[in-house]
Amino acid sequence: MKVMTEQKKKYDFLIVGTGLFGAVSAYLLKKRGFSILLIDKRDHIGGNVYTQKVKGINVHQYGAHIFHTSNKKVWDFVNGFVEFNRYTNSPVANYKGKLYNLPFNMNTFYQMWGVTTPEEAREKIEEQRKECCIESPKNLEEQAICLIGKDIYETLIKGYTQKQWGRKCTELPAFIIKRLPVRFVFDNNYFNDTYQGIPKGGYTVLIEKMIEGCEVKLGVDYLAQKEDFDALADRVIYTGEIDRYFGYQYGHLQYRTVSFETEILESVANYQGNAVVNYTDAETPYTRVIEHKHFELFGQEVEDCPDTIISREYSKEWQPGDEPYYPVNDEQNSQLYEQYKVLADAQEKVIFGGRLAEYKYYDMHKVIERAMEMMKTID
Ligand code: UDP
Hints:
Layout: E1 11-16, H1 20-31, E2 36-40, E3 51-54, E4 57-60, E5 67-69, H2 72-79, E6 92-95, E7 98-101, H3 106-113, H4 118-132, H5 140-148, H6 150-165, E8 195-197, H7 203-210, E9 215-218, H8 226-230, E10 233-238, H9 242-245, E11 255-265, E12 276-279, E13 288-291, H10 300-304, E14 308-317, E15 326-327, H11 331-345, E16 350-352, H12 364-376
Parallel strand pairs: 1-2, 1-10, 2-9, 6-12, 10-16
Antiparallel strand pairs: 3-4, 5-8, 6-7, 11-14, 11-15, 12-13, 13-14
Helix pairs in contact: 1-12, 4-5, 5-6
This protein binds uridine-5'-diphosphate (UDP).
């Protein structure tokens, strides 16, 4: 590519990354009359929310994405591009062949102990909590036992958490488990948010609509041709890894990564009867199995579609070359990120936004809120 020599650069903004942060920013800036070039390293748009249609089923290529929010503004915003379906996440846990409902609720307590009333369930948990004599929980194991008792901890939490994080529950912070709801009602809805669903036709449609009218170049690595790309636009919105942007000069930030073993099962209309089944024992090597069709087909529709697609999900420590998924927000990594952030703040013409550029585990609705908030500061 030739460096442009004209006084006026061709675009007002170069947006690096076509995931949710990049796409929402593109939409909002374009609406205000700015010209935009969007680029992505991958050969498709959408970042990790990308879905691909295979055998009539939208496959969540980079893991299950279930949209949920209590922010009406965000919900109306996404529904303005594409209608969302009625999907409600209610994962099932498989522990050595026995099934339990998640999140922890009256169904789980009945399956675990045979208790039928909230009072009996509370008594059971209290009894187990007393036996363990934990005053103030110091790690995930102690927090989980205090919250829900030893039986549920050992059956539904211990093995799964150790597989997901590659660390013992006694070495993990207590806050991780506080994400999970505990309810004394018969309600298997995994989230507490007001709104929930999946875009009809998949997330790729949502992203396509957001970036409609913007110029897009795929399969190009910004940092490999940085000077050339920078010459094209007045300002840059960068959504890639912050440590990579600065040439890893202070060292690598750590991530957990996930890999997927995806299989098309021909003439199997319904493999596991649910979109998400967690394998909570320590022996099964994968953490969960996703059956993609259940994200968008319900009731008889499931059986009417003759084939199915499943993905087994494996969790491991990130190595250079892997896709970064979950930032490891422990003390050491948070300190390292702060060093990079000082460098980022000094870049006057570059905005760093999203999960990788801010090294933050954002849910999708939080990424959208963040992009909306940051774009307001642009003049
Ligand atoms: N968790 C668990 N058993 C389960 C599901 C979740 O012990 O069957 C714990 C585990 O420690 C996990 C945390 O709850 O890291 C948060 O789970 P969540 O579903 O929010 O994780 P995500 O889907 O975002 O990876």
